Amino acid sequence: MEIFRPSFLSIDSQTIADELNRNGYFSFERAVTDEFVQAVEQSVAQNRTGLNSNWAHGVNMGRQYYLTHMLAVSKAFVDYVCHDKVLQISKCILGPKFRLKAMRYYETMGGHHMQWHTDNKTDKAIADIPGIIFIVYLNDVHDGEFQYIAGSHEFSGQKAYSDYSDEEIRENYQERVVSFKKPKGTIIIYNTYGIHRAKPVKDPNYLRKSLFFQVDNEVKNAEPILLNPSLLSNLTKEIEQYLGFGLPAEYEIFPNTDLRHHPLNATLLRSFFSWLTYRLARSFFDHLPLSLKNLVKSKRKNYGI
């Protein structure tokens, strides 16, 4: 399966790096193939949710959904993250040593409000760690798009904070806001020092599907990842360092969720009633006399239940 279209692959990686260094961002419409998008969506659908299921599944946090452990469930995502073009771009910007810091498939729904912020931070504090982020749109985006303050990667590091209020942006940087209303398959690469957000949307039926991963110079730490090694096509020393083989991974995984964060929706209710029905039937069966248990078992066997 081809990940990127020839039109994107034909762009010199240094040219991409130069534009990133100049503006803080680079974007290219329909950079990835429809086949890649379909493969990712299929992997997400197969691993979307799993209460008490012993595998890698997605989680909900507010008006967003995340499937963080894409390296465990999607060969298409593994091939994308480890693609030679991605590594070339990373080298041009970050030099020979860099590491995959974080990744996720995510959905942003109407009503979600993301604060303007930068990503040059760890789970503890702001950090002086050069890095870049890759985003791919998995559906056409006409609203709720990614927004970036052009050139902000050059001055945000002088601030002692990484979050910015809407008022501060309106008063100081409104003319620099670049909005990325783009079609499915668009790739956006940006400097982690840049100020950005997803534009708020009030429509409750709105949904944006995206892929995200971050690469930076800090080789000695990252978020923990779950990796299915059978999905790796070519494990080199470079890929081992890039994925953090044998290196600490002590940052808190994002998002940090539990069952309280799951919305009260049809998926949760179906799971609950399925569990309740099974547990009640099981409890009733466990209290039957042994002779009746054996009778029930034989009937189930006869009927192939």
Any chance you could write out the topology, listing elements then pairs?
Layout: H1 6-9, H2 13-23, E1 25-28, H3 34-46, E2 59-61, E3 64-67, H4 70-73, H5 75-81, H6 84-94, E4 99-109, E5 116-117, E6 131-137, E7 146-149, E8 163-164, H7 166-172, E9 177-180, E10 187-191, E11 196-198, E12 207-216, H8 237-243, H9 266-286, H10 290-302
Antiparallel strand pairs: 1-10, 2-3, 3-4, 4-12, 5-8, 6-10, 6-12, 7-9, 7-11
Keywords:
Jelly Rolls, seven-stranded antiparallel beta sheet, 10 helices, alpha+beta, three-stranded antiparallel beta sheet, 305 residues
Structural description of this entry:
The structure is a single chain. This protein is α+β, with helices and mostly antiparallel strands and 305 residues long. The chain folds into two domains: 6-257, q2cbj1_9rhob like domain (Jelly Rolls); 266-302. The protein is 32% helix and 19% strand. It has a seven-stranded antiparallel beta sheet. A hairpin with a 2-residue loop joins strand 2 (59-61) and strand 3 (64-67). Helix 2 (13-23) packs across helix 6. The two termini are 40 Å apart.
Spatial extent as radius of gyration: 23 Å
| Major beta sheet, strand line-up | 1-10-6-12-4-3-2
Count of individual helical segments: 10
- Report the order of strands and helices: HHEHEEHHHEEEEEHEEEEHHH
Structural class label = alpha+beta
CATH C-level class of the largest domain: Mainly Beta
Name the poorly predicted regions: none
Largest sheet geometry: 7 strands, antiparallel
Shape assignment? globular
CATH superfamily of the largest domain: q2cbj1_9rhob like domain
Provide the β-strand percentage band. Answer: 15-25%
Overall pLDDT, averaged? 91
**End-to-end span in angstroms?**
40 Å
